[in-house]
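Issue: copy button drops trailing tokens. Both records pasted manually instead:
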Amino acid sequence: MEEKIQFFTEAPLEFSIKNESDYRNWIQSIIENEKFNLEQLNYIFCNDEYLHKINVEYLDHDTLTDIITFDNSEDKQVIEGDIFISIDRVTDNAKDRNLLFDEELKRVLAHGVLHLCGFKDKSVEEAQIMRNKEDWAIGLFQ
């Protein structure tokens, strides 16, 4: 049976997530807690250059970012999407915030799925709610 949560890496980046099943179970628990159903979720790990090209091409943003989330669902309560994560940004952000890489990676993984659950982060208030939800989600990891 094919997993509904997949992890991919775009060359030339060499990266793999450790304990994929633990991460799948954790992400699934976030989705279930938010009362959504999971159809398919793809995490694509890449470098800054790859994600910058996506940011320019699809979002017309000429900036570096740690994550871009594409919602492919047609149903409001269904999670189906692609989440691109720059491992370069996660590494730098972890250093800047004095966090372990794994903690920052969890924050970004949760951030993407929370976007698919309807949480936004454009305003100061939305960003604070998102940060609180990220902290809550990280606390679910076992």
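Record 2 (pasted manually too):
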Amino acid sequence: MKRSTYLWLLIAFIIGAGLVLLLPHNGAQAEESALAQLITGSIYDRQAQPVAGAHVILTLGSESALIAEATSQPNGRFALSLPEVINDTLIIQIERPHFKPALIELGAPMIQDLSNGQSIVLPDIILQRRISPAFWIAILIFIAVLALIAAGKFHNTIAA
């Protein structure tokens, strides 16, 4: 074929593709589902550092039945999705190794907000560190090594 024939075929293809793109179409669209209520918050230690990997559990206060659970992210944030509306006392339990567990009871105004379909954001949660026997053992070894170095009984290179 001649070069002009290829040019006319190219122009016809471009016009056809443009028309197809301009035609209205009813593509598949995501259905809007009811948004679940969320309880979100952030967990920090006493030095204002985010606590990652904390296990956050939401339970009914009277029955201790598990409703939702989540794990805090590296930035300390968590989100609990409620599958249904709850009209009872809710308790949030936060557990993490080397920290004291925290219990937060949600009051009536927060539960009312959840019942109205709103999500709530908790104020920042501060976890207290737990001082275990391992901490005291490490402190005693450290002090003993320093005392031996100061007394000249233990050489610095060996201690290092």
